[in-house]
Design brief:
Largest sheet: 8 strands, mixed
CATH superfamily of the largest domain: D-amino Acid Aminotransferase, subunit A, domain 2
Strand order of the largest sheet: 9-8-7-14-13-10-11-12
Number of strands: 15
Distance between the termini: 33 Å
CATH topology of the largest domain: D-amino Acid Aminotransferase, Chain A, domain 2
Helix content: 25-40%
CATH class of the largest domain: Alpha Beta
């Protein structure tokens, strides 16, 4: 089991990061709730990050209250994505905090990849409403409305989802909270978003063959998201 109380990761590509202030806020707020003030440490370690190459550092608060950073090379950028719906017990113990459930969710992803060749696992609440994926937030389109799970459901706040919502505001695109099941989403344009990959449209469910969508907004939005990165 993981000893992490809090964790946060973000992509650093040639010294540029998306939503750094939001990552800082999420990490330091979770640490502060546990009695650890992490702002000065976060800022100091950010200044030490490389200004070249692709990195995926993970800021951590362990069970003993110690702060640390893992400077990890960034995995390759993801492309076409297959998802599967998790139909077992919810593995999350603290769905509102990033860190404690990372190992359990990683095991869930690994099993889904073994069984289905899936890249991500969708999680539903007891009502069957999709709330998030193991390592991604879930967004989808209904006509010209960008949709998100209801805020009163238990899921992790997503920095990348917040950045996408900011793009929507700039583009004057309506954003709505809607409760939807996996069956509701099967024929819609669904995006999984996270700090590493940005926006990835879902192109296959379970064992179904990957069939690229005839039309997707994701390419243009991904480009806008990439352009939002700022220099460390």
């Amino acid at each position: 089991m993981t000893s992490l109380q809090v964790a946060d990761s973000f992509l650093v590509a040639n010294g540029q990061v998306r939503g750094l202030d939001l990552h800082r806020l999420r990490f330091t707020s979770s640490c502060s709730a546990l009695g650890v003030e992490a702002g000065a440490y976060f800022d100091d370690q950010v200044r030490r990050l490389p200004g070249f190459g692709r990195w995926f550092p993970r800021f951590e608060l362990d069970a003993e209250g110690k702060l640390s950073v893992q400077l990890r090379p960034a995995p390759p950028q993801g492309g076409r994505i297959r998802v599967v719906l998790h139909d077992g017990p919810d593995p999350r113990t603290q769905p509102l905090v990033k860190g404690p459930d990372l190992d359990a969710l990683g095991e869930l992803k690994a099993q889904a990849n073994k069984d289905f060749g899936a890249h991500e696992v969708l999680l539903a609440d007891p009502d069957g409403v999709i709330v998030e994926a193991a390592y991604s937030a879930v967004l989808w389109w209904e006509d010209d409305t960008l949709c998100v799970p209801p805020a009163d459901r238990a899921y992790l706040s997503s920095v990348t989802a917040e950045l996408v919502r900011g793009i929507a505001a700039t583009e004057e695109v309506e954003v709505a909270e809607r409760a939807r099941t996996a069956a509701d989403l099967a024929d819609t344009e669904v995006w999984l978003v996270n700090a590493l990959h940005g926006i990835r449209p879902v192109e296959a469910w379970n064992h179904d063959p990957i069939d690229p969508l005839p039309f997707t907004r994701s390419k243009a939005w991904q480009q806008t998201l990439l352009e939002s990165a700022t220099t460390l």
